[in-house]
Amino acid sequence: MKINRRNFLSNTAFLGLSSVIPYKAIATKNQIINFNSNELRIGVITWSYRSLPSNLYSVIGYCLDSELNAMELMGGSVESYLGIPRRRSLQREWRENISMDRFKIVRKMLDDAGIRVYAYKPSSIGMDNTDKEIENAIQAA
Q: pLDDT digit of tens for each residue in the chain (141 aa)?
C-alpha cells in the first residue's frame, strides 16, 4: 500500500479510536452492545436512518440491527405511529388534545425492545406552535 497523507490520517485515526474504546464495548456477532455502566455510551439519533422508511417499527428494527440499545428519538415516527393527521390544519388540534397515555404505549414498545431513549426531539417545538402543543411535547418527552 502506498503511504500518502490520506492513508496515514485514516489509519492513525482508527488506531487512536481503538485505544479509547474499552474491550468490553466491542460486540460479538448477534450481541447487543450494552452501555449501562460508567463506560463509553454509544447511541443513535433516528435521523441517521432518514433515507430509510421511518415508521416506528422500522426505527426500532434499525436500532436493534445496528446493535445499539440507546437512541435520541425524533418525534416524526412517534407522531405517525400515534395517528397524527396528514393535514397541517388538523395537526395542531391533534397535538393539543392527544392523551399522554398514548405516548406510554410507545415507551413500552421501546422498553420491551430493550432500547433506552436518552432524548426525544418532538416536531412541535417551534415558533409556529401553540403553548399547548409545546407543553404536550415536553410532557411526552
A: 566 666 555 555 554 444 445 544 455 555 555 555 566 667 888 888 888 888 888 889 988 888 888 888 888 889 999 999 999 889 999 999 999 999 999 999 999 999 888 888 888 888 888 888 888 888 887
**Alpha-carbon distance 139 to 102, whole Å?**
12
Query: Across-strand partners of 117?
Result: 71
Hey, is 126 helix, strand or coil?
coil
DSSP tag of 28: P
Grid cell digits, residue 52: 430509510
- Residue 95, phi-psi category: left (phi > 0), alpha (psi -120 to 50), beta (remainder): alpha
